[in-house]
Amino acid sequence: MDRLEILESQSVFILREAYRSFKNLVMLWSIGKDSTVLLWLARKAFFGHIPFPLMHIDTCHKIPEMIQYRDRFAMKWKLNLIVGKNSTALEAGQTFPAGAVSRLDCCAALKSEALKHTLSGEWPRWVLDHKTGDFVQQQGGEPFTGVIVGARADEEGSRSKERYFSPRDQHNDWDVGDQPPELWNQFKTDFAPGTHVRIHPLLDWTELNVWEYIERENIPIVDLYFDNGAGSRYRSLGCAPCTSPVESTAKDIGEIIEELRSGKFANIAERSGREQDKEDGCGLETLRIKGYM
Questions:
Q1: 260 exposed, middle or buried (CB, 10 Å; 0-12, 13-18, 19+)?
Q2: Mean confidence (pLDDT) of the chain
Q3: I need a labelling partner for 202 at 20 to 30 A (CA). Which of 149, 158, 212, 273 fits?
Q4: What does R_g of the chain's alpha carbons equal in angstroms?
Q5: Hey, which bits of 155-284 come out as E strands?
Q6: How far does CA 155 lie from the centroid of its chain?
């Protein structure tokens, strides 16, 4: 087996173990390349059918092409897709784009708080109706306590402290120092009642591995990752006001792989274009302790 086959096998094992171990399971889908690879792996793990819902937290400030991509493939792949958002903050204009709060406070409200309350069922959920293609509002629902996430250890500092099965408290808060050991592929999946668990099947993948797998599997991804002739592209996707493209003429996956192997991005952090990371002196750890993805 080559490196990609080993990673794929490990991720499929983690996905199946999560499904076996946790009743109320959901997978987060950010629309980016990592969570789309994770979605692809889940379809492989369960033979084309994903037996748990997907959830997207919509800040209503995403790059429009991301939402178009989300809706197109949710319909094509018949995904059970749930969308959550912080309607109160959005309607009150308590956001960074409105000039009311900092980038970090905006992330905390539109991402962390929205995720926490959508997972718990306290806030409304919008569910995709495959007959009409519309999202229908539902009032809450059963809480999700097992959450599958496409985080990678090499992506930024705080993610390197994660485990494949990473416990949170009942409020989704993360104690970085209280993580179970995972030695010799032995994973702890039995946690105390009320524990929320984040599952990270891509933890040992690198950015290069992800792109190599996308190329091998011919996975469709949003065109924002490629140069459209302007001499720039997005390397990491997020909200439009806080995500900047990088200078790059890579127009296809092969050229992106070459940039990562030996080119200009070989030793540059992937999230260098994400402004909220720069605002937080601890990288993303401050946000992630409070539930950020």
A1: buried
A2: 88
A3: 273
A4: 18
A5: 165-168, 196-199, 232-233, 246-247
A6: 12
**pLDDT for res 119:** 94
Give the pTM. Answer: 0.88
Other CB atoms within 10 Å distance of the CB of residue 249: 13
Picking from 21, 45, 43, 41, the residue whose alpha carbon sits closest to that of residue 187 is 21
pLDDT single digits (tens) 122-143? 999 999 999 999 999 998 789 9
Helix (H, G, I), strand (E, B) or coil at 255: helix
Q: How confident is the model over 153-202, as pLDDT tens digits? A: 887 655 567 889 988 876 667 666 677 777 677 788 888 887 889 999 99
d(CA 102, CA 187): 38
Joined tokens for residue 72: 């197109």
281 phi and psi, to 5 degrees? Answer: -65, -15
Q: Is residue 124 within 8 Å of 87, Cβ to Cβ?
A: yes
DSSP per-residue codes, 55-117: EEE--S-B-HHHHHHHHHHHHHTT--EEEE--HHHHHHT-STTTTSS-HHHHHIIIIIIHHHH
Tokens at 263, concatenated: 């080119």
Domains of the chain (ranges; CATH) run 3-205+281-289 (3.40.50.620), 207-277 (no CATH)
CA atoms of 146 and 105, how far apart (whole Å): 26
How does DSSP classify residue 217? H
